[in-house]
Amino acid sequence: MESRECVRSSPARAVATGAVAFVCLSCGGGDLVEPDTGDIVVRTTTAGVPAGAAGYTVSVDDGEPRTIGPNEAITVAGVESGLHTVELAAVPEGCTLAGDNPRTVTVTGGGSVEVTFAVACPPPPGAVTVTISTTGTFPDPDGYSLQADRAPELPVEVNATVVLTDFSPGPHLLQLNGVAPNCTVTGENPRTIDVPASAALTVEFMITCPLATLRFTEMASRTRADLPDVWGADANNVFVVGQIDESDGGTASVVLRYDGTVWTQQLRQQNLVLRAIWGSSATDVYAVGFPPFATGAVLIHYDGNQWAPIRNFLSNVEEFAFESIWGSSATDIFAVGSAFDGLFGQALLVHYDGTEWRRMLPPESTSPSLNDVWGSGPTDVYAIGRDEVPSPAEGVILRYDGAAWSPVVQEGGLLLNGIWGSSATDVFAVGFDVSEEFEVSSAVLHFDGLAWSRLQVPSVGVLFEVWGSTPDDVYVVGEEGRLLHYDGAIWTQTRPSRQSLLGVWGSSAADVFLVGNRGTILHGVP
Fold this sequence. Notes:
The chain is mainly β. Helices cover 1% and strands 57% of the residues. The strands form 11 sheets. A 4-stranded mixed beta sheet has the order 4-1-8-6, with no helix packed on it. It has a 4-stranded antiparallel beta sheet with strand order 3-2-5-7, with no helix packed on it. Strands 12-9-16-14 form a 4-stranded mixed beta sheet, with no helix packed on it. A hairpin with a 7-residue loop joins strand 23 and strand 24. The protein is elongated and about 135 Å long. The relative contact order is 0.08.
């Protein structure tokens, strides 16, 4: 064999190249030495977003796991030549890994081998914010229900914001159900929505419920009593008072209650006339009246279980009779009527402050018999009636400012029966005028916050009571079943009953009750 020598480069060449190089690694006949370690490059690719995880872990053989991102490459250096296993861990639930795991790779000395793990994760669920807004005089009284795809319906209010979650990205069907017949949904309903991945979507349902004509139908009251007043705490707690002439010539009063389904009799009491009813809640209700053959006004209270009289707090010098009751709260209640001193009826004004009932002083200039009371608050209360002392007799409206009562309207030939307002600057008083020829014509007075004025209304005779849901949704009831309605611009008249209608109240614009003679109860809904 030919011998090989070790040749060293010249010093001049070493200076030129900047280093001393050996061109022979072994002198004396030895072999070249090859590296015995290599590198493993681990790469991850992820489709979608692994929910709740920052990445994965990777380990070679049984070595210490290292963190690797969803789309990242790391190098494991210094791995001995030969076969090795590479394993990817911490893959979130719901994600799938393509291929084997662990993988077997061959490492060559001085070389590099790459292994790629492909992970597929489903897109994260999307969220949908649904805004529901309702406008108009007659909003749906029981709200709506919202349904996404085939999921159970979710009850929602007429004005609400609801966040729906766990939507898979892509198209879905959203539907608003239970919309009243008089209401209209703007846009498509149901409508298709395209939910983006990992992003919020806002959907708005706009509903318009314009003024609709109520259809009044007669209800089974199970009584022939004349019913002068109706009041309710809500649509399922409505109370009516009235009286009926008995066969022996006596008079009995009744109290009826409606639970949303049927009317039932709560009270029947002889020798009693009940004229009005009001409460602060379904378990705090007052009814007022008088005994027909004795002195003393009557005030009874319902606590949710039974009706009981409130002790007589008035003297027996005069003959008293309550005609109406109203309060701004459970501790601020006014009851009005008349006190007969032997010549004329005088104003009877009584106030409850939450502790006791006290008689109030009427104004010195006039003291009318009072038929109704209403207020916008404790310091803005109206009582209406008729003063028989002047000639001709005057219709009078008194106002209480929190300190004293004073007259704000005094008009000859006028008799006022009912008063109601939507606010301190929107008040209606109703009754009738009697001309010198004794002709009767309907009368409606309105207060706009500055002055009282007459409104032009169809003349249907005597008007008894007024109630409304808003300034542009006002009802007035009268004799011979007449009903006037005001929409904020014009008055219209109908005749839903042949019996005189004496009282009106509603839980909303779409839920109105009319009561009258011979047990008449009418219920108005769209």
